[in-house]
């Protein structure tokens, strides 16, 4: 009964960790997914995501690895490590899968001084470089080191040994590739140790490394002999072969003229002696002094390596400073362009005001000409009547007529000049408006590509001319897009998986589909809707289908295809327009069902998709009702 209860409790703990990690990934995808905004450790969502990944990797980690703890105790006695370095963290397992350059990178961090801090720095660096998925595949594939060997790292009830739940870790890491992380990895806050009491004395550290781990010493004794033989072969030190079978042999004395490899083997021999029988031997001052001398020599070598790494880091810092200067220069140029555009807009506004004033003058001049023309006709009729009554001198009459004609000519010239200026300003304003309209159309299309069409955008994006204005305005708010694509599998069996993101009002979810599933959906819809033949569906390609440019172009084409299909479903099926919910959509098209829910497609190369059969039965039942 107790074993069953412990099993249920461990399973509940793993499920709780999985749910919290899924929630942290979802929050980060909602906040930063598909955007150009950078996700830093100043955001609580990013902090929560890192903490959940640490909890998963730390769960079930064995805390009684005697050889590692004893070596940490010796290093702490020599003053070469911090008090938290003896704590066993997931870094001890992760560093087994890193190459020499990667290890040097994390050991050369200036502000990281503990193993826990290096593990946290590795996790944040993997998020920044979008390499967490690759690392997780490597960690989970190493089953011998995880739990099957006697010298393993994790307990049988740990999260990483739960194949069903652990297999979801690389997929969740791949879903984070659409986020631009910029997390600080060289931070003293990452050194925070595990909560564990204890003093600083050597005897207390040695007691803590051996207390309650009798079974571990037996396991360590089985693998120490082979470990020392491998080290002896690698260092090729003649005349020195440590003995681990005879517990009565005294500890060797370190000669003065010894190489770095002999010093390391001497230290390992001391550790092995105590690993075989930890409670029967206490370190003497001479032994501790010799171990300290060997570690000090090793410290000098590490300091030389650190100096070379610091020089490399200085070079990288100079390069980063150059990049920052270029970024500042580009920002200044952008600010200048914005100022120029602002000044241009203000100039056009002033020209528009001047144009309005001149137009008013033009209208006033025309009205004045009309009034003066009617008045001139009255004057001519009055002159004629006066001529009939009394004679008028001809010279005076001709002078008045010429003066009137000259005034008309001057006014006509002014009107012509204002008309020419009006035409010029009108052409300039028209060109400016056309340029702005083109920019607005381009920006609207980019916005639609990012967040999907809304009812106001359907009139510009829909390829179906049969949609009326009423249907466009009252269209159900269902958005679909494909934000990312990632590679699944290995070698010749690798294939691309597309992340399909669906949002219906406030309800949103993700599904992951292969290209073959999209093609089966297209073939299935062509049998029900003849209009689907005209939709732009990306064709199949046998060679070069894993090229990055080709995959990105196919992602855009599949996204446009799904949106056209959604518009056609909303136009054709009234039940979706009347009740736009997730349940309605999944009942009509199970292609959008997430994995694990009823209606989710279970496709493979040998078995057809189950959603096709359900969709076919739904269509037959609908025809029978008709």
From TrEMBL:
Domain (RUN): residue spans on this chain: 40-188
Molecular function GO labels: phosphatidylinositol binding
Domain of life per record: Eukaryota
Record keywords: Coiled coil
Coiled coil: 299-358
Gene3D superfamilies, A to Z: 1.20.58.900, Phox-like domain
Matching InterPro entries: PX_dom, PX_dom_sf, Run_dom, Run_dom_sf, RUN_SNX29, SNX29_PX
Span of domain PX: 476-593
SUPFAM superfamilies to which the protein is assigned, alphabetical: PX domain, RUN domain-like
Coiled coil keyword on record: yes
Higher taxonomy: Eukaryota, Metazoa, Chordata, Craniata, Vertebrata
Signal sequence coordinates: none
Keyword Coiled coil: yes
Full protein name: Sorting nexin 29
Segments of this protein annotated with the region Disordered: 595-626
């Amino acid at each position: 009964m107790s074993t069953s209860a412990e099993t249920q409790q461990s399973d509940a703990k793993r499920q709780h960790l999985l749910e919290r990690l899924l929630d942290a990934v979802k929050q980060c995808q909602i906040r930063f997914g598909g955007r150009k905004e950078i996700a830093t450790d100043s955001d609580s969502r990013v902090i929560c995501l890192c903490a959940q990944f640490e909890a998963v990797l730390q769960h079930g980690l064995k805390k009684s690895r005697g050889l590692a703890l004893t070596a940490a105790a010796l290093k702490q006695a020599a003053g070469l490590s911090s008090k938290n370095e003896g704590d066993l963290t997931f870094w001890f397992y992760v560093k087994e899968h890193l190459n020499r350059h990667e290890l040097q990178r994390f050991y050369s961090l200036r502000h990281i001084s503990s193993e826990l801090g290096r593990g946290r720095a590795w996790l944040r660096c993997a998020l920044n470089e979008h390499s967490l998925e690759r690392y997780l595949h490597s960690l989970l594939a190493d089953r011998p080191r995880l739990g099957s060997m006697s010298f393993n790292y994790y307990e049988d009830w740990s999260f990483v040994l739960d194949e069903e739940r652990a297999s979801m870790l690389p997929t969740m890491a791949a879903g984070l590739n659409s986020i631009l992380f910029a997390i600080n990895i060289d931070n003293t806050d990452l050194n925070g140790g595990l909560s564990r009491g204890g003093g600083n004395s050597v005897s207390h550290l040695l007691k803590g490394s051996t207390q309650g781990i009798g079974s571990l010493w037996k396991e360590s004794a089985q693998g120490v002999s082979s470990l020392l033989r491998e080290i002896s072969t690698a260092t090729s030190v003649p005349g020195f072969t440590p003995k681990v079978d005879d517990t009565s042999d005294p500890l060797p004395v370190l000669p003065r003229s010894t190489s770095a490899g002999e010093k390391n083997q001497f230290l390992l021999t001391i550790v092995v002696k105590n690993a075989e029988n930890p409670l029967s031997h206490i370190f003497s001052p001479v032994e501790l002094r010799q171990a300290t001398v060997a570690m000090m020599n090793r410290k000098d070598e590490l300091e030389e390596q650190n100096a070379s790494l610091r020089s490399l880091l200085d070079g990288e810092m100079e390069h980063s400073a150059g990049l920052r200067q270029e970024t500042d220069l580009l920002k200044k140029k952008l600010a200048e362009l914005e100022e120029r555009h602002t000044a241009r807009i203000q100039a056009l506004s002033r020209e528009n005001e001047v144009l309005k004033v001149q137009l008013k003058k033009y209208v006033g001049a025309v009205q004045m000409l009309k009034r003066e023309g009617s008045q001139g006709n009255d004057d001519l009729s009055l002159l004629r009547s006066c001529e009939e009554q009394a004679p008028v001198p001809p010279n005076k009459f001709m002078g008045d007529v010429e003066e009137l004609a000259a005034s008309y000519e001057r006014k006509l010239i002014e009107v012509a000049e204002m008309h020419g200026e009006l035409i010029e300003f009108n052409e300039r304003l028209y060109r400016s408006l056309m340029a702005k309209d083109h920019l607005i159309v381009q920006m609207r299309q980019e916005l639609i590509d990012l967040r999907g069409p809304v009812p106001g955008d359907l009139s510009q994006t829909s390829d179906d001319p049969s949609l009326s204005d009423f249907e466009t305005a009252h269209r159900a708010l269902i958005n679909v897009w494909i934000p990312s694509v990632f590679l699944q599998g290995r070698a010749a069996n690798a294939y691309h998986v597309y992340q399909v993101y669906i949002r219906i009002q406030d309800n949103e979810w993700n599904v992951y589909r292969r290209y073959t599933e999209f093609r089966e959906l297209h073939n299935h819809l062509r049998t029900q809707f003849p209009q689907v033949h005209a939709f732009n569906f990306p064709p199949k390609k046998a060679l070069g289908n894993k090229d990055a440019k080709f995959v990105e172009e196919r992602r855009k084409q599949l996204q446009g295809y799904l949106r056209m299909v959604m518009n056609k479903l909303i136009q054709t099926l009234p039940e979706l327009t009347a009740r736009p919910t997730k349940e309605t959509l999944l009942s009509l098209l199970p292609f959008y069902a997430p994995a694990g829910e009823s209606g989710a497609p279970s496709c493979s190369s040998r078995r057809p998709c189950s959603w096709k059969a359900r969709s076919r039965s739904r269509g037959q039942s609908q025809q029978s009702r008709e």
